TrEMBL record, chain A:
Name of this chain's protein: Aspartyl/glutamyl-tRNA(Asn/Gln) amidotransferase subunit B
Function summary: Allows the formation of correctly charged Asn-tRNA(Asn) or Gln-tRNA(Gln) through the transamidation of misacylated Asp-tRNA(Asn) or Glu-tRNA(Gln) in organisms which lack either or both of asparaginyl-tRNA or glutaminyl-tRNA synthetases. The reaction takes place in the presence of glutamine and ATP through an activated phospho-Asp-tRNA(Asn) or phospho-Glu-tRNA(Gln).
Pfam families in alphabetical order: GatB_N, GatB_Yqey
MF-aspect GO terms: asparaginyl-tRNA synthase (glutamine-hydrolyzing) activity; ATP binding; glutaminyl-tRNA synthase (glutamine-hydrolyzing) activity; transferase activity
UniProtKB/TrEMBL annotation, chain B:
Residues annotated as domain Amidase: 25-471
Record gene name: gatA
Name of the protein: Glutamyl-tRNA(Gln) amidotransferase subunit A
Entry GO CC: glutamyl-tRNA(Gln) amidotransferase complex
PROSITE patterns: AMIDASES
Top-level taxon in the UniProt lineage: Bacteria
Active site positions: 78, 158, 182
Family: Belongs to the amidase family. GatA subfamily.
Keyword Nucleotidyltransferase found: no
Record key words, sorted: ATP-binding, Ligase, Nucleotide-binding, Protein biosynthesis, Transferase
EC number: 6.3.5.7
Amino acid sequence: MSTATHKLLKGATGEWEMVIGMEIHAQVTSKSKLFSGASTAFGGEPNSQVSLVDVAMPGMLPVINEECVRQAVRTGLGLNAQINLRSVFDRKNYFYPDLPQGYQISQYKSPVVGEGEVIVDLDGGKTVTIGIERLHLEQDPGKMLHDRSPSLSYIDFNRCGVALMEIVSKPDIRDAEQAKAYVTKLRSIMRYLGTCDGDMEKGSLRADVNVSVRRPGAPLGTRCEIKNMNSITFIGQAIEYEARRQIEILEDGGQIEQETRRFDPNKGETRSMRSKEEAHDYRYFPDPDLLPLEFSQAFVDELKAKLPELPDQKKARFVADLGLSAYDASVLVAERESAVFYETVLDKLGNRARDGKMAANWVINELFGRLNKEGRDITGSPVSAEQLSGIIDLIGEGTISGKIAKDLFEIVWQEGGDPRALVESRGMKQVTDLSAIEKVVDDIIAANPDKAAQVKDKPQSLGWFVGQVMKASGGKANPQSVNDLLRSKLGV
Amino acid sequence: MTDLTSLTLAEARKGLAAKTFTSLELTDAHLSAIEAARVLNAFVMETPDRARDMARAVDEKIARGDAGPLAGIPLGIKDLFATKGVRTTACSKILGNFVPTYESTVTSQLWRDGAVMLGKLNNDEFAMGSANETSCFGPVGNPWRREGSNTTLVPGGSSGGSASAVAALLCMGATATDTGGSIRQPAAFTATVGIKPTYGRCSRWGIVAFASSLDQAGPIARSVRDAAMLLRSMAGHDPKDTTSVDVPVPDYEAAIGKSVKGMKIGIPKEYRLDGMPAEIEKLWSEGAAWLKAAGAELVEVSLPHTKYALPAYYIVAPAEASSNLARYDGVRYGLREQGKNINELYENTRAEGFGAEVRRRVMIGTYVLSAGYYDAYYLRAQKVRTLIKKDFEDCFAKGIDAILTPATPSAAFGIGEKGGADPVEMYLNDIFTVTVNMAGLPGIAVPSGKDAQGLPLGLQLIGRPFDEETLFSLGEVIEQAAGRFTPARWW
């Protein structure tokens, strides 16, 4: 772990440290299910995407979907993790109506991906490294529908058998902010890779969060697991609540019972689901219907060679090549779509070396600021990457000032259009013609003799003259030319 | 036309090709035989209309000269094989009137090659049993009786219906499955030929699973040649079963009559059990002598872990079964017994739907996989399995071509005679056959003689992986020497 600081919680008897580990269930992006050819499309009519294998008809057998294996390996590579060339599918046995086989096919002792790590970006450009314990493939169960009848439950098996990656972190997370940032970063990596769409509302990404507390530096405390969280905000709230609850018990001289809990977002609290004694005995054993999953190093190498650039690499490149600050770079790469937008702007710039950094400022401050204000995301931006690069070109080449550019941005946002043509047609061009500016400068000096006399002693008051000139020119004068002219006329 | 039922499959093929009779005539002869033999309870579902439709269709093909290798041959299908549109129950109440919308790979290949389905055959519930007494449709009668006795004997199990129907000339051949001896033991009890091919030789897709790592389909037939013909159609790689193996299917029939001169036949000393009946011992020596006379060399071999095979099998098989049978929960198909909540529904359905032996094995399997017991039972049994497999590998590495053993420790016994008080008494029937499943090897049972009471006995030949051909060659030598055995008709 890097040395980023984390939040300690203050109890009545002193400070407490949280120890958090997570199991993320990420739905694999694939056309068909993990062991059957049925479609994985979201939102189909109930039970319209179900094969004989999915509902465990007698004599049906699973056949591994190779694309899901590739996706798991890609994800493992994205987590800088050990890829296991041989892994084993096991059966996790339990009865539930949404689980037709009476067991979930999962990976228990030999997962497809072993240890890795994720660099998590925190506020202020700091980072923390969170260890990955493992990643394995498993089947999603179906979905119980309890609201269709007063006396019966229905089951939709469309989701049943869809591939999930369970990504287990090491207990390296130390507070709610880190936990949220960890999920955000994992989600981002998988979206870059195209291995999981990360859509938490549709259930594509869910998290089980293990929380315990201890005195800083003390041995690990007893943990509780909060199941099935599907919002990053709720994850933060649940951790805060759960840690406080545990501290209260410990400070009252009590003991933490290891148990499974659920978070109630309406009340903002966690509640017990089942105790350790009620926990299932899953009777894991290797699935005799499936051979061990084996592939060659060449298979891994080929996938590795075709991996897209990931957020950390992109960030490093932005810093090294364009001179962006680490913070700006991490903001730009956080979402794949933002990075794509920014890079499209870069591609269209007339002078990338000169204006690349300015483009980053514009994307982050003007564009993201405006989008946030209107609750839109980058894919719905009214200003295209091409339009924004047009505006930045105009600033970079000195055709318009930064101030005019903001007006231009507003026009493009509201009305659309080609920035260069707009500048022409609306007379927004910056005036660099000295003779045109000179007249204005002379008038202002003549009207303010006192101030002009003071400038020699107080050079900083030159700014007042610049402001006056710019104002009089309607912002169109080139600030540098104005500055030069004033200096020579006022003799500073 | 009744003598049509006494033909072997190979003879019937000739008659059909020569247009001496039609498939419809052959099929009708067997349908009549089935009707007259209902007392045997071999068929749990007769499909005469479908049989005649299939036969007529094949007759047209034969007329056009477009006939497959099994064109017009009427077969019985063990009720473990899913048959599209025909009730498939694994002879368990829990499947109720389940009618699959799909056809098992093995049966679909038989139909592809022109075979005709007469109906579904009785078996032990979920193939769990060695006497066909655990079927929800009741026990099956063996066409063989002790000389001078009217006692109905068991045909063995779990493929008791298949063996009984083939022995009683109700079908020209039958599909069967073998998890610990379920093809070879009933074949031995009924003087039929049964082969369990190498694990992975036949697709398991569409066959109700008992223990996935041991289950394998194979034929029961009237002769070694017939078994070879049937296996050729049943075998083959299936992308829908990833444990099926992609090796070409040879023309097994070509192995019949091939010289066995110079082949090394292993006689495993560990199969000489204490208290083994003298007539089994005699049968074994006789079989060895026949092979020797045909030019094979006999070699004493050692399979040192044999004695651990049965206990290990009764851990591995129930463990897998306990998980495989979890899908029968009353939620989606088959029997449902209501309850106040979902757990009661499960309990009521499974208590009502499963018979005593199935419940016993589900409980044993659940126990051996439980936390705290897994290492001591399941894991250890898997290690034993590896050692058993290695015993055979060592043997074959020394140049042994096949191993000769008795098929069963005794001849057929009476219904209800065994296993009433102690299930292990019944489990001991599989003592010579389970090792073969544990090692995934091919094994054939060939009728070889009779005991003092006139009941048939069989010998088993165990081969190298995917070397079923050698078993057919050797099996036919025994068949030629021992002659064919047909039961006197009493039904």
